[in-house]
Amino acid sequence: MGGNRGTFESERSVCLGWVPGGSSSTCQGGGGPPKKPSSRELGLESDLCIPHLIFGDKHRLANAPLYSSLLAAYHHSLLDSSACKRIVILQARHNGHLSDRLPRSAKGGTQLLRRTVLCLPLAAILAWSAPLRPGASFVFPSRPKLVVILVIDQFRYDYLMRFRPYFVPGGVNRLLEGGAVFTDCRYDYVTTMTGPGHATLLTGAYPGAHGIIENNWYDRDQQREVYCVEDLSTRLVENRQKASPSPGYSPRNLIGSTLGDELRMATDFRSKMISIALKDRAAVLMGGHTPSAAYWYDVGTGHYATSTFYMPALPAWADDFNRQTPTKTYCGQKWQALAETPGADGMVFSHFEASPGETCPDPKFLAWLEVTPFMNEIELSFATDAIRNEHLGQGPETDLLAISLSVNDYIGHWFGPYSPEVADVTLRTDRDLAKFFGDLDKLVGLDNVWIALSADHGVAPSPSYVQQHKLGLGIAQPASARSAAERSLTQAFGPGPWIEDQDEAYLYLNQATLKKRNVAEAKAEEVAAKAVASQPDVAAAFTRTQFLTGSLPNSTPARKAANSFNFKRSGDVFLVLEPFAVPSPTLTGASHGTPWSYDAQVPLVLWGGAFKAGFYPTPCQPTDLVATLATLLGLTQPSGSIGTPLSVALK
Ligand SMILES: [Zn+2]
Predict the structure, then answer these.
(1) Which of 32, 184, 376, 473 is the most buried (most CB within 10 A)?
(2) How far apart are CA 156 and CA 418, in angstroms?
(3) pLDDT value at position 55?
(4) Rounded to an integer, what distance in angstroms lies between the CA atom of residue 450 and that of residue 400?
(5) Spacing of C-alpha 51 from chain mean position
(6) DSSP β-ladder status, 273-277 and 399-405
(7) Ligand 1 mean position to 405 CA, how many Å?
(8) What pLDDT, in 10s, does the model give residues 101-137?
(9) Per residue in 338-388, pLDDT tens?
């Protein structure tokens, strides 16, 4: 059967049409000029046009999501003639560009290549091209060459505002002035820690789904605490020769996919995804299951390392980086405040003095260096080497680089959010980022890059600060909660031991005692939770049975606790601390890990060609970050993602 080729084009757009009763031969092109069909002929409510997607230079075409979708469809044999009963023909204005890039060995490809006419089921195109919001003039932008996700470990939203007067041009200000800044972005779960936070940012899910419930949790089967990224079957890799005897790390405990996993799968692993952090757990959890590489810093050697999960030996460039001993640059240096750091008056915060006969850098020096802002310089220098040597942003597909600047967390824990040390590391981070963005511009071109900035959690003031300013109790007393539960259970059911383990958020009941005393778990949980909740530093306590049976109270802490609770890994009684009851082991150290805003509210900034600059008070969650990026990149959302694309900030 013949029929009109329902292909037409306008000056700046490509439009879709269909051929009534079309056949494969019609799909593959026919004679005569295309005739513009009416919308009625097209069977559409209105003309469906997709402006700005295919036109432009070759690069823009190659990076257009539509182009990738077409290629994907091509690979998946959607061009089968039976699928062309109701067909859509699409023709690019610059035909040569499209045809140049089509796979020449594909089935039936030759004729298609010559004609540069593609057929797709109408439903597929309609689904792909559906607007993000009803009534919005949303257009899928060209894919960038590189997406950079920047996470600053322990970085509260208010740091952006408090320290903005001291930021230099080109660093954080570049993002604040040119990006979409969400001013009320808060995690909606309780256990705001590094492992869960990084996993949440890249999966778009909360710990209940991604399974990283804390940095460490108690494993009943192994009867010990496990570390979130431990993997005793792997070995550390820190050079080109052979793996170290030290155990390595892997994402074995991470449940479900990340943005990087989805990007890699969608491009048949042509997209590169690399994650880099000072902390192993940050690099591993951001990287997901299928990264090209994940690198972290090994303080024992002062080297950037990975594990045998990822590769048997470091690539040459990373080995070279280590061989140049980047830590050596800082031998003899002091950590002195910048002249402009508020409240610091140029003071020397810390310095390292080698004992006679010691060489630098030795392990003692490396331990000192690890809590100085110099670590961010080393980390970003490593990241720049990764971009240069792995050719990130130079390939045909979008690449993804995730960087977590971890030292801000170490310094924050030591000194607290209102200290001059935190002010200084924040200002230095800004300057480090200005340099990094400059390097990124030289290597990839910032026009080709999207940058997202966020944090894994915030932080509470130190207990001594809390007490000084009468904000609350100050220090949390987890041991008191445990002994209160043990006491109540003993009174109710006889001698224990009743509590098998306690970590930051959970009590784990002793299963052997429950059995021996013939006590139902639900009953014991209830007694323990009541005892725990009576403690002055505990705001609420929930039981495993409440999570399992859906009988949690209708409260904000309960909702956040439910997002934190993983049925397989979580304990029997869940504790939520009162605001300003800080889970810190010392009066002077600050900490985090609660649902309250100082821990939960973080920056979320989206910068690049797809985003409308401005400050957005629209409430959002860090889970929205990958939801937005996945949508823009035309990807399946990560498996557990509950995020919502932030359409308000899309061009
Ligand atoms: Zn952290």
Answers:
(1) 376
(2) 11
(3) 25
(4) 10
(5) 31
(6) parallel
(7) 9
(8) 333 333 333 222 222 233 333 333 433 333 344 444 4
(9) 999 999 999 999 998 887 888 899 999 999 999 999 999 999 999 999 999
Write down the residue that tokens 């401005």 correspond to.
614
CA of 377 to the centre of ligand 1 (A): 18
* Beta-strand pair 180-186/581-582: unpaired
Distance from C-alpha of 93 to C-alpha of 109, rounded to nearest angstrom = 19
The proportion of the chain whose per-residue pLDDT surpasses 90, expressed as a percent, equals 75
CA 188 / ligand 1 centre spacing (Å): 16
C-alpha of residue 282 to centroid of ligand 1, in Å: 8
Ligand 1 center to residue 581 CA distance, Å? 18
CA of 192 to the centre of ligand 1 (A): 8
What token pair was written down for 380?
Answer: 């970003």
Q: How far, in Å, is the centroid of ligand 1 from the Cα of 195? A: 7
E strand residue ranges, 138-257: 146-152, 180-186, 216-219, 224-227, 230-237, 247-249
| Residues by chain with Cβ below 5 Å of ion ligand 1 | 153, 194, 409, 456
Q: Is the pLDDT reported for residue 88 higher than 60?
A: no
In the chain, the domains with their CATH numbers are: 1-134 (no CATH), 146-207+235-333+363-460+596-649 (3.40.720.10), 477-577 (3.30.1360.150)
Look-up: residue for tokens 């006889």? Answer: 494
**Catalytic choice (7, 194, 594, 631):** 194
Higher pLDDT residue, 52 or 360? 360
Query: How does DSSP assign 575-590, residue by residue?
Result: EEEPTTEE--SSSS--
| Distance separating the N- and C-terminal Cα atoms of the chain | 42
- Examine the pLDDT at 84 and tell me if it is beyond 60: no
pLDDT tens figures, 516-559: 999 999 999 999 999 999 999 999 999 999 999 999 999 999 99
Cross-strand pairs, 249: 230
203 vs 622: CA distance, rounded Å:
10
Sheet of 499-502, strand order: 499-502, 506-509, 573-577, 538-543
* Helix 65-75 / helix 122-129 crossing angle, nearest 10 deg: 150
| Spatial CA neighbour of 122 closest among 265, 201, 191, 22 | 22
Instruction: Spell out the alpha helix ranges (H) of 390-520.
Output: 407-415, 420-443, 463-468, 478-493, 511-516
DSSP state of 147: E
Residues 146 and 398: beta-carbon distance below 8 Å: yes
- Between CA 159 and CA 165 the distance in angstroms is 11
Residue 401 to residue 387: CA distance in whole angstroms: 8
Question: Cα torsion for 161, 163, 165, 166, to the nearest 10°?
Answer: -160
The letter for the amino acid at 596 is W
Cis before residue 603, ω within 30 degrees of 0?
Answer: no
Give CA–CA dist 144/433, Å, rounded. Answer: 20
Contact 47, 9 (CB under 8 A): no
pLDDT mean over 223-249: 94
- Segment (H or E) for 121: strand 118-121
SS3 639: coil
- How many Å is the maximal CA-CA distance in the chain? 92
194 is annotated as an active-site residue: yes
CB 496 within 8 A of CB 479: no
Q: How far is the CA of 277 from the centre of ligand 1 (A)?
A: 11
Tokens of 601: 């509210």
What's the CA-to-centroid distance between 410 and ligand 1, angstroms? 9
